[in-house]
Design the sequence.
């Protein structure tokens, strides 16, 4: 089992990278995101990839990731019927690891099925199989930037007027935080502290800064 590779980036083309480790070149399959990061580092420089070795019917392939967390998510993805290593890499090419975890936790099959080769039924199966396993350890990266205000005041006005927030990004963000294990009261307080966001994902990321 090859846990990781640390060596010189010898070659990079699309979803294939070659890492020179002590004079031996290892071909590693990578996602579009990883490929972009490796490209910014440039050939001839030292890189490190956490790897998964796939062996089946005489076929051996290495899949590389920038973090242990991304590798762990990939291992979960390929346990789902109909996904496989290529499907897992396709998902992580279209969505970042955090965005994919968020889509699984919130049951967003439409977002997941954006990946080539992943249809609606496979996306729904992936959510069903992995939602509990992903949500138990998922804390997405905090959103960058702040400075706009108004959401707290807006929520207070809506509450005072007796208007329902059901179906709004605010209510969806609260529900997602509750699914992640936070108490509803503290989730609501965190959302009220956030800057104005137009979509649930951005609002959730911002709210997590306060939890």
Sequence:
């Amino acid at each position: 089992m090859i846990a990781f590779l640390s060596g010189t980036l010898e070659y990079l083309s699309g979803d294939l990278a070659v890492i020179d480790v002590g004079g031996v070149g290892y071909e590693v399959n990578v996602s579009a995101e990883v490929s972009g990061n490796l490209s910014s580092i440039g050939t001839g420089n030292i890189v490190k990839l956490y790897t998964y070795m796939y062996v089946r019917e005489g076929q051996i392939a290495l899949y590389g990731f920038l973090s242990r967390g991304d590798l762990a998510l990939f291992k979960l993805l390929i346990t789902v019927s109909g996904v496989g290593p290529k499907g897992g890499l396709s998902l992580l090419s279209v969505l970042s690891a955090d965005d994919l975890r968020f889509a699984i936790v919130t049951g967003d099959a439409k977002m997941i099925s954006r990946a080539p080769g992943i249809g609606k039924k496979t996306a729904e199966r992936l959510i069903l199989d992995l939602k509990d396993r992903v949500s138990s350890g998922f804390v997405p990266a905090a959103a960058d930037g702040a400075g706009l205000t108004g959401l707290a005041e807006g929520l207070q006005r809506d509450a005072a007027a007796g208007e329902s927030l059901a179906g709004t990004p605010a209510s969806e963000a609260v529900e997602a935080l509750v699914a992640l294990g936070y108490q509803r009261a503290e989730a609501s307080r965190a959302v009220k502290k956030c800057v104005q966001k137009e979509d649930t994902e951005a609002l959730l990321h911002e709210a997590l800064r306060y939890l």
